[in-house]
Each structure stands twice: as C-alpha cells, then as structure tokens.
Amino acid sequence: MLEPAATAVELASIREILRMYCDALSERAVDLQDLKLLVEKNIGWSRADVATSDGSAIFLPAFVDRFDTEPENYAFLKVMLTTIMGTKVTSIIRA
Q1: pTM of this prediction?
Q2: How many domains does the chain have?
C-alpha cells in the first residue's frame, strides 16, 4: 500500500473536526466514514477519491493528496464535504 505524501490530509486525524463542522451546518449528528468501506462493497457510483453519501452516512477518502499543499488538500476535502452536506440539508428542508 502506498503511503500518502507529506502534503496529504488524512481523514482519521481530522474526522472529529469535520464531524463538528457538519453538525453545525445541519444541526444534526452526522456520521463520517472512510470511503474505502463503500468502495469495497462496490455500491453505487463509488470512487476511491470522491466523497459520497448513502443517505445515512457521508463517506470521505481516507487521504486527499490532489494538490501541492496540505491547506489546499484540506480545503478540497471541506468543499467535497460541504457539497454533500448542502445536498443533505436541502433534502431535509424539502422533506
């Protein structure tokens, strides 16, 4: 297994911060899981590098190493998460 670069952001080390961020956005408890769990089950459109949701949990890549710096990779992870959260919050409001 390849080790992530030094500029990568690791989900395990920031999961709690991201969970609090999601809870604040939605005013509900949000379950954040490693995307690997969903990809291994071969469910839906899952890819190993793009966040998704199964309706009850949000699945994020274990590592994000798409950009040259750690802050850029962190920002990208937050953009993916915020996009999923926007979809979930909109669905809640419309329901």
Answers
A1: 0.78
A2: 1
The boundaries of the domain holding residue 47 are 9-90
Whether 46 is in a domain gets the answer yes
Residue 4 lies in a domain: no
Sequential pLDDT tens for the chain (95 residues): 455 678 999 999 999 999 999 888 888 888 999 988 877 777 656 666 788 887 788 999 999 999 999 999 999 999 999 998 887 655 544 44
Residue 37's identity, in one-letter code, is L
Instruction: Kindly state whether residue 30 falls inside one of the protein's structural domains.
Output: yes
Strand partners, 33: 59
User: Measured between alpha carbons, how far is 42 from 76 in angstroms, rounded to an integer?
Assistant: 24
**Helix count (H) and strand count (E) of the chain?**
3, 5
